[in-house]
Amino acid sequence: VSCTKVIVLVALLGLTVSRSNLQAAVVNIDGNLSSDWGISLDNNKHLVFSSAYTNSNGTQYVGNQNLALECHGTTTLSNGRLVVYDLEDTNDSWDHSHKVGPLYGGQDYDAEALVVGVSNGNLYIAIATGQRPDNGYSYFGPGDICITKGSEVWGIETGGGSHATSSHMVVDGDQGTNYTLNSNGYTTSSMNSSSRLAGSIWKGGTWDAGINGSNDTRTQLRTGGTYLGMSDYVYNFDSAFGQHAFIELCIPNYADLFGSNLAGASIRWSPVCGNDQLTLCVVLPSELPPGPSVPEPASVTIWAMLLLTAICFARRKCSLARRP
Ligand SMILES: [Ca+2]
Ligand SMILES: [Ca+2]
Ligand SMILES: [Ca+2]
Ligand SMILES: [Ca+2]
Asked: Full-prediction pTM beyond 0.85?
């Protein structure tokens, strides 16, 4: 067998392996969490979670029950995606008198799922929540996504406000929004911002804390910070979803952008009041699955090809737009 034939064979094998891995790795940033995250809605518009999501006792997470069913961990979905998750879906029919923990607010304030994954150097985040603009203006104030590692803090602007009420989807580049609340957590005003756009990524800055009793110290990126770039971002809501909305985003080449690999970082999201909170401490899953136990030279070639293909794919799929 000639050397050329071996190389061609290894190349074909590498391409086959990489193709199957990359198909599993594709996340469509469309505000639909069904096929890529295993989070969908049943006929009654209640969340349904993939059987891969389990509670601390190892039983499947079913949602829509009570706070005791909050669960978090790392799992591999049926599509092959390795994810880190925090699920806490309280009853979708609860009114504002119900506790979502630590404070009250019912479904309108329910932070239901925060799921994170990494593929090909890109960071993907998905959120399911009851925070919808059509909850009523005073009940609507989605916080910004906060990532911390040691003393470093990054934020992703979620937007919303008046733009959200005129459109069923907030996307990257729409105006961002700052919400002002009263001491009970009701939104009293909101201000759109064209200098902090939805989906924009920031380092540092001054964060608002939740209301008294929520003990949430970073719910909303209020002022300042250094602009790093834009994510590929969608905040999707529709009456067809019942009282649910879905955030989905991709931060391309996140380790380069952040200057950190985020191992041991904490990712969190809550409404601006902090009445309900999701906090995920992630040691992010590695980008590639463990290599097959094949002879060393072939293995090296396959993984090198995987990496090269992955880099090409990542650049095509999710490119970073920087402000001039
Ligand atoms: Ca999707
Ligand atoms: Ca719920
Ligand atoms: Ca919740
Ligand atoms: Ca905001």
From this structure: no
